[in-house]
Amino acid sequence: MSDLTLLDLPFDILSKIFKFLALSDLSNVMLTCKTLKTFITEDNTIWRSFTNLFVRDSVDNRSQPLSSYSLCRVSRNWCNGIYKQKTLRHNTKYMPWVKFHNSEAVLIALGSKLCCYSVDQQGLKDSGYIWSVEVPTVERNDIRTNDISRFVIKNGLLVCGNRDGCAIVYKLKGTRQRPCLLHHIQDCHDGGQSEVSAVELIHTGDMSIAVTASCTSPNLCYWYNNRIEHDMNTPAKLKFYKTSDIIRVPNQGIVGLRCLSVNKSQTKLAIGPDGNSKPLLVDVTMSKFISCTNVSPDIRQAVRDVQWHDENTIAYVTHAGKLQLIDTRTFEVVYDSKDPFLVTLYCVKTDGDRAILAGAGEHSRCVLYDRRNAKCHVQMYFTSKRPSPVYSLDFDSTRLIAATDLNLVSLNFNIRADKRRQRDYSSFDFKIA
Questions:
Q1: Residues 348-384: pLDDT tens digits?
Q2: What is the CA radius of gyration of the chain?
Q3: Which of 35, 107, 349, 350 is the most exposed, having the fewest neighbouring CB atoms within 10 Å of its CB?
């Protein structure tokens, strides 16, 4: 009688054995034969013990989710700095804002133009953008530009905030079609004398509310929609009108509001102020502040970007280079880290689980953090040799999109590790002398 081999064991027994192996040992077993490689890669139960390595999709969901094995392989590439880079360059310097929409298209604001680029498994396509639109602008007799500061996409609506003091609402019917202009909201703050630095879109029932804020005004403005029907052959138009109530920040010393983010339940609005190092919180249903930070206002401080990590936790980055998470139930900091070089962090994005990415103010650098470890970063990605900040970023489980002053960069981590060189900056430790 011949001796039994590993392949003679039942698959359920093999699965239980492989669960006890380390990643390096699993990799060696996969190299022995095609049968074991196929079995290991297709058995998701083996890889569930390695879920702590995953960089998950952020807010948008991809149409074709990856297998557990692929997620684990890609996540190791994130942590080890193994990726393929694509760069699209524009000739004029901007402070762009970017959105990775449904993992299939990238929308970027370049001055007063909004562009949409297609994305495939390799990253950004070189065939140019799918469409572009010039947003309506208003000429002001001052030094302001007509650039788009930020924009948001929700429930088929796209809202842009302009530095000329206006906001623009579009209807977005998929990423392949040019958006349709619905409403040009002029003179949002102080009769148009203050720029619109941040926008947010809140949906309550059948009502949509556009929220605008300015870095030179301590007021929040709510714009409620008014749907006007014409006839059976004409689609409904969406108009927004300003409410009589203006929410004013109660903290003295705060000169303006730089960023906004609403939670998934559409009940709480997080605000990043200029003149403070922590965000503020507004009850959407009551239209009033439900918490204020107990930090003394400081005009040298600013919350650069804010995002909801989960339903009860806010992630934010500051001008001083801090990355923090605050629990809105206790208003205590539950995660406290910093940029490795102690420079300004401009933007932040989380996957709602463990991965947090921040864009730094120098060398076009993105920094990956682990929610479970605040002592040090996981990895850094230098997307360009230029000294530009990363003004905006977005990501899913396989790709990182970063926008600098002259470049739109895509990093693809869904590649074979043996085909690319490793760019590992995980061991960098900055210490003050």
A1: 999 998 999 999 999 999 999 999 999 899 999 999 9
A2: 24
A3: 35
pTM, two decimals, is: 0.88
**CB of 84 closer than 8 Å to CB of 90:** no
Tell me the CA distances in angstroms from 71 to 51, 252, 422, one per residue in order: 8, 47, 18
In angstroms, the CA 386 to CA 365 distance is 10
CB half-sphere exposure, 354, CA atoms < 13 A: 15
- Tokens 């004398």 correspond to 193
Question: Token pair for residue 411?
Answer: 């990093």
**Amino acid identity of 140?**
R
Residue 11: how many other CB atoms lie within 10 Å: 10
Judge contact between 402 and 366, C-beta under 8 A: yes
**DSSP class of 48:** G
Enclosing H/E stretch for 39:
helix 34-42
**C-alpha distances in angstroms, 240 versus 46, 150, 274, 282, 317?**
52, 18, 27, 21, 31
